[in-house]
Design goal:
The structure is a single chain. Strands 1-20-17-22-14-13-12 form a seven-stranded antiparallel sheet. The protein has a six-stranded antiparallel sheet with strand order 2-3-10-5-8-11, with no helix packed on it. A four-stranded antiparallel sheet has the order 4-9-6-7, with no helix packed on it. A hairpin with a 2-residue loop joins strand 6 and strand 7. The chain folds into two domains: 114 residues, Sandwich (Jelly Rolls); 118 residues, Sandwich (Jelly Rolls). It has 262 residues and is mainly beta. Helix content is 3%, strand content 43%. The two termini are 16 Å apart.
């Protein structure tokens, strides 16, 4: 595939647009990826024809991470105050989901990820300070990072969603290296905190036939089950990772040795 074809197939470029709610339906695991950037007015999450449902979460669960200024998410009349990098899990059966920013001059940027759900778990808000933190990597390999796990087996309960945020330490630029695949779960990366004069080289594809896609701030990339998902930035950055599929085991992955990459 050419660079253009790769981007058309796997990259959601214009995720956050002022005053808009934007959604992408991905057939793999029936994933929905979205961005909501309310300014003066509230924005409501409705079902579209692809879902064939009365309302968005009729048969789905939803995760929301705020990447911008202070905002609120109202779920069936209950208001959740969401600061930067707070995560809200919205359970199946939630009917009315509305987003708003506290300050139009510093709007919230709500990142959405959704998968089908077979049962209902409670709508739950998790502050970044409450997330499970996992330290990985080293300065020697330029991949020292902190993983904040929000929705996982021992955190917020869900049907199949697993979600968290990875922040690289100063001087580190590699993520998810050495790489891996997981045939039982697809994944989506949303890169943020990428400076305007920087980029992340995201690597995908089978381990013996890799490709790269250049990612900029606020862009999401889809990772099929057969693909690695790793990146190297020209400067520091962070990303939201989210998975859906057959199981929720964070360590259910098939590692690929760096020496075997091609």
């Amino acid at each position: 595939m050419s660079t253009r074809e790769l981007r058309e197939a796997f990259v959601f470029e214009d995720l956050f647009c002022s005053g808009e709610l934007r959604l992408l339906y991905w057939e793999t695991d029936r994933t929905v990826v979205g961005g909501v950037m309310p300014i003066d007015a509230t924005l409501k999450l409705d079902a579209d024809k692809e879902l064939a449902s009365e309302y968005f979460c009729q048969r789905r669960e939803l995760a929301v991470v705020n990447l911008g200024g202070l905002g609120q998410v109202t779920v069936d009349g209950t208001v959740f105050d969401c600061g930067r990098l707070d995560c809200l899990y919205v359970g199946r059966g939630s009917r009315d989901i509305v987003f708003q920013s506290n300050d139009p001059a510093a709007p919230a940027k709500f990142y959405l990820i959704s998968y089908p759900a077979h049962t209902t778990y409670p709508t739950t808000l998790a502050k970044q300070s409450n997330a499970k933190q996992v330290k990985l990597g080293s300065q020697e390999t330029a991949n020292q990072r902190t993983i904040f796990q929000y929705i996982h087996e021992n955190g917020i309960k869900s049907c199949q969603l697993v979600m968290g945020v990875t922040q690289l330490e100063p001087g580190s630029v590699w993520n998810t290296m050495p790489p891996h695949t997981h045939l039982r779960r697809s994944e989506v990366y949303l890169y943020f905190n990428v400076p305007d004069d920087a980029a992340v080289f995201h690597f995908m594809g089978p381990g013996d036939a890799t490709r790269n896609i250049i990612m900029h701030d606020g862009q999401a990339v889809l990772s099929p089950v057969w693909s690695i998902h790793a990146g190297c930035g020209t400067k520091g950055y962070s990303f939201v990772w989210a998975m859906g599929g057959e199981n929720q085991r964070f360590d259910d992955m098939d590692a690929i040795a760096v020496r075997n990459l091609k």
